[in-house]
């Protein structure tokens, strides 16, 4: 399963309930989640609801943050971030 979440300024993550995928391969669900994140971000930026500040907010939950870092690295979302110790998505 993959789901899309919004990261709050304090590092909490809030699940967007209508954006979750099941019954596909792990690579497929993660790819869909990343695609939808990009679409949502670009829509919000185009409408003026959000803007890029350059700030990065890590998640408070270390396990979820590690998974997030692995996905960001695998998709080149943060190319300046060093590779995590192990690139493997957890269930």
| Low-pLDDT runs | 87-91
State which percent range the strand residues make up.
15-25%
| Biggest pleated-sheet summary | 2 strands, antiparallel
Radius of gyration from the alpha-carbon trace, in angstroms? 13 Å
Helix proportion range = 25-40%
Strand order of the largest sheet: 1-2
- Please provide the ordered H/E string of secondary-structure elements: EEHH
Number of strands: 2
Shape: globular
Mean pLDDT: 80
> Quaternary state, please?
single chain
Q: Termini, distance in Å?
A: 7 Å
What count of helical segments does DSSP give? Answer: 2
Which structural class do you get from the secondary structure elements? alpha+beta
Would you write up a description of this structure?
It is built from 2 helices and 2 strands. It has helices at 26-47, 62-74; strands at residues 2-7, 13-21. Strands 1-2 form a two-stranded antiparallel sheet. Strand 1 and strand 2 (13-21) form a beta hairpin.
In short:
With 91 residues, this protein is of the alpha+beta class. Helices cover 38% and strands 16% of the residues. The protein is built from two helices and two strands.
Please render the helix and strand layout as text:
Elements: E1 2-7, E2 13-21, H1 26-47, H2 62-74
Antiparallel strand pairs: 1-2
Search tags:
alpha+beta, two-stranded antiparallel sheet, 91 residues
């Amino acid at each position: 399963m993959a789901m899309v979440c919004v990261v709050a300024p304090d590092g909490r993550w809030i699940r967007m309930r209508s954006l979750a995928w099941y019954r596909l391969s792990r690579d497929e669900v993660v790819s869909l989640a990343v695609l939808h994140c990009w679409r949502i971000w670009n829509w919000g930026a185009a409408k003026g609801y959000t803007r890029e500040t350059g700030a990065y907010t890590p998640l408070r939950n270390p396990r979820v943050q590690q998974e997030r870092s692995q996905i960001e690295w695998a998709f080149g979302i943060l190319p300046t971030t060093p590779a995590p110790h192990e690139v493997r998505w957890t269930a």
